[in-house]
Design a protein that fits this description.
Helix content is about 45%, strand content about 25%. Helix 2 crosses helix 3.
Length: about 130
């Protein structure tokens, strides 16, 4: 039996639009993942700490406020500063096409926008965590 994917869902920084992440949490749970939700308004450092403390395989980050080029790489930086390089980071939210390449260069994959199917997101998470 395959081990369940442990995923942290977070909206780092000042973005209190939580309907989308709550839908993601339920979809991930229904897909058999163990879901940890950070709650609203964690700092990037708090997201990294929660991810380490909860021993997650992946972090799903979402922002609608335009701070993705700052907040998402900050989460990765805090993980790296603590010696953690094996947690996949998946981005989503309102992300302009031109910013997606920059996020990918920083190790943030997916970068899904509104309307992306849950199957697409879940399959991506399975692929980047290498757990099927």
């Amino acid at each position: 039996m395959a081990q369940k994917i442990r995923i942290l869902v977070a909206k780092p920084g000042l973005d209190a639009h939580d309907r989308g992440v709550l839908v993601l949490c339920r979809a991930f749970r229904d897909a058999g993942m163990e879901v940890i939700y950070s709650g609203l308004l964690p700092t990037p450092e708090q997201v990294a700490s929660i991810a380490i403390d909860e021993d997650v395989d992946a972090i799903a980050l979402s922002l609608h406020n335009g701070a993705h080029l700052t907040a998402f790489p900050e989460v990765k930086k805090h993980l790296e500063n603590k010696g953690v390089n094996d947690i996949a980071i998946i981005g989503g939210g309102i992300i302009p096409e031109e910013d997606k390449k920059e996020l990918e260069k920083n190790g943030i994959t997916g970068n899904f926008g509104p309307g992306t199917s849950m199957d697409t997101i879940i399959n991506h998470i399975k692929k980047v965590t290498k757990k099927f």
